[in-house]
């Protein structure tokens, strides 16, 4: 296997014999050499083929070595230069170094003197090139940070242009982005000076541009770092010698075009430069994608916040209406009811002996109706109060709570045979005061609907289901038809006639509202004459989660 050459040398000397001897000698030392006696021919070759170092004679009839070096560096700014001279004056050496030469050698020279000079010049070139690549890498890194910094699209444009401007040979850089309607490309930002790129330039996004974007992405994706990528050198814009264009695409979305104009207008950009610009364009595309997603997210958040504000205003208005309604119920409706009830009592007390039995029965119905209406109003106010009362989440010892509630029914259960079984219940995080009302209503229902049983059996228990803790109250009462179960927890909904079982139908509505505010569910299971089981669940959570 042939070893790779140490470096590619372009050797120019008007003395053909010396040039040929130098080429052959350095080739044996491991260098790839190409020699010319004509400076113009050497420049023509440099436009077609990259070299690492120019070794040129200082005094030549067609063009002196300093002029040749200056012209060569116009083509390739990374080219290292060494001049050979037989006139070893200090002035000549200083002039050569001032014009870009890294060193010089005196004729006639020996190989052991020339090789160290070549090695130093190539090492200097390597360090300079690495420094350039490092600056380019830093600019790409800074742009990459923009992806995580949540920059806007305009900020991404400015950073991309600034990063591309740090590349070697950069003459002008600009970014074209689609207009809002997507029909045209406009200049979003520009750095440097290129007379072919007017600031107000626009391009219609036609079929030609669409095909070019697809072809360029295809060629760049399949490119291995060597060989030609014709699409980037021939974009569907105005011809601009020495420039390239790369599409900015991410996630199937087209965000624009990165245009780069080189100072070395006589030579195409190297594969390494194209690769660096491609990485920059891909990084910019990712930043644009991130900025677009962030803008969408901000828009959605703003819309959501507006909806929350609107909903909050609606709720505040509704709460105000409820407050007004509660006040009206408490004062405007109760006052005439109290008057009706009071007049009935006064009439019976003062004139009861002279009233016929049918009249007394009718007056009794009025008094009963007044009492029931007062109870409905009281239940409605309780329901509204439980709906608005703020939650105070604490750890609640449920077994102790249920036993305390059960004790409050002791007096009204006198004379009944009731078997009440309270299992050990797991504690929960919730509002103990509100949960006490839950069990107050559930146990009240169970006692009420087992009143006709010779032996009432009521069980309070619990079980775990996934991320929920389920509690239940089971009885052997009259039960109900599950066909009407969806009405069970509705306001003022009753599944049994008022004459059979007293009540207003508000108790289970309060249960449902309290449990819903805790993030839980309510449901039931029953059969007529086979009892009923009422369930509610509470999410299992820690105190920090509840807070």
Strand order of the largest sheet: 2-1-3-4-5
Largest sheet: 5 strands, parallel
Number of strands: 17
What is the arithmetic mean of pLDDT? 81
Total count of helical runs of at least 4 residues: 14
| End-to-end separation | 73 Å
The radius of gyration over CA amounts to 46 Å
Structural class: alpha/beta
Percent of residues in helices: 40-55%
What does the model show?
The protein is an alpha/beta fold and 547 residues long. Helix content is 50%, strand content 19%. It has a 5-stranded parallel sheet with strand order 2-1-3-4-5, with helices on both faces. The protein has a 5-stranded antiparallel sheet with strand order 8-7-6-10-9. Strand 4, helix 4 and strand 5 form a beta-alpha-beta unit. Helix 9 packs antiparallel against helix 10. The chain is rod-shaped, with a radius of gyration of 46 Å. The two termini are 73 Å apart.
Q: Topology of this structure?
A:
Elements: E1 8-12, H1 16-28, E2 32-36, H2 39-48, E3 53-57, H3 65-75, E4 80-85, H4 90-98, E5 103-106, H5 111-149, H6 153-165, E6 170-178, E7 184-192, E8 202-204, H7 207-222, H8 230-233, E9 243-250, E10 253-262, H9 271-351, H10 357-388, E11 394-396, H11 398-407, E12 418-422, E13 428-430, H12 432-449, E14 456-465, E15 468-475, H13 507-517, E16 522-526, E17 532-539, H14 543-546
State the main characteristics.
single chain, about 550 residues, alpha/beta, five-stranded parallel β-sheet, five-stranded antiparallel β-sheet, 17 strands, about 20% strand
């Amino acid at each position: 296997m042939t070893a790779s050459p140490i470096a590619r040398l372009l050797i120019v000397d008007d003395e053909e014999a010396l040039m040929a001897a130098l080429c052959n000698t350095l080739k044996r030392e491991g260098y790839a050499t190409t020699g010319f006696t004509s400076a113009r021919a050497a420049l023509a070759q440099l436009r077609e083929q990259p070299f690492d170092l120019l070794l040129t004679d200082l005094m030549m009839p067609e063009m002196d070595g300093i002029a040749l070096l200056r012209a060569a560096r116009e083509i390739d700014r990374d080219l290292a230069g060494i001049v050979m001279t037989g006139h070893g004056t200090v002035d000549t050496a200083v002039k050569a170094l001032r014009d870009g030469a890294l060193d010089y050698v005196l004729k006639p020279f020996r190989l052991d003197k020339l090789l160290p000079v070549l090695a130093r010049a190539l090492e200097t070139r390597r360090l300079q090139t690495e420094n350039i690549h490092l600056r380019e890498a830093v600019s790409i890194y800074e742009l990459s940070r923009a992806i995580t910094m949540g920059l806007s699209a305009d900020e991404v444009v400015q950073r991309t242009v600034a990063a591309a401007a740090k590349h070697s040979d950069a003459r002008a850089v600009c970014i074209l982005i689609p207009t809002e309607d997507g029909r045209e490309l406009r200049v979003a930002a520009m750095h440097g000076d290129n007379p072919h790129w007017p600031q107000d330039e626009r391009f219609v996004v036609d079929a030609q541009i669409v095909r070019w974007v697809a072809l360029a992405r295809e060629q760049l994706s399949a490119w291995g770092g060597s060989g030609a990528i014709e699409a980037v050198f021939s974009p569907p814009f105005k011809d601009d010698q020495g420039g390239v264009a790369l599409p900015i695409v991410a996630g199937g979305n087209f965000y624009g075009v990165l245009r780069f104009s080189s100072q070395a207008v006589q030579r195409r950009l190297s594969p390494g430069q194209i690769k660096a610009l491609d990485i920059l364009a891909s990084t910019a595309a990712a930043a644009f994608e991130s900025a677009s997603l962030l803008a969408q997210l901000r828009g959605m958040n703003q819309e959501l916040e507006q909806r929350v504000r609107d909903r909050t205003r609606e709720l505040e208005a509704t709460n105000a209406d409820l407050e007004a309604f509660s006040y009206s119920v408490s004062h405007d409706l109760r006052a005439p009811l109290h008057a009706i009830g009071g007049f009935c009592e006064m009439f019976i007390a003062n004139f009861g002996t002279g009233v016929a039995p049918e009249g007394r029965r009718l007056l009794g119905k009025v008094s009963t109706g007044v009492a029931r209406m007062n109870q409905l109003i009281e239940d409605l106010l309780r329901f509204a109060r439980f709906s608005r009362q703020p939650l105070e989440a604490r750890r609640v010892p449920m077994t102790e709570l249920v036993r305390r509630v059960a004790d409050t029914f002791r007096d009204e259960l006198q004379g009944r045979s009731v078997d009440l079984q309270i299992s050990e219940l797991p504690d929960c995080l919730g509002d103990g005061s509100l949960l006490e009302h839950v069990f107050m209503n559930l146990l009240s229902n169970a006692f009420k609907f087992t009143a006709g049983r010779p032996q009432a059996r009521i069980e309070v228990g619990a079980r775990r289901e996934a991320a929920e803790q389920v509690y239940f109250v089971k009885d052997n009462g009259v039960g109900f038809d599950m066909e009407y179960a969806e009405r069970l927890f509705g306001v003022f909904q009753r599944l049994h006639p008022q004459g059979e079982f007293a009540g207003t139908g508000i108790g289970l509505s309060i249960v449902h509202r309290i449990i819903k505010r805790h993030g839980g569910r309510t449901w039931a299971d029953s059969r007529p004459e086979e009892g009923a089981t009422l369930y509610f669940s509470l999410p299992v959570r820690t105190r920090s989660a509840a807070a």
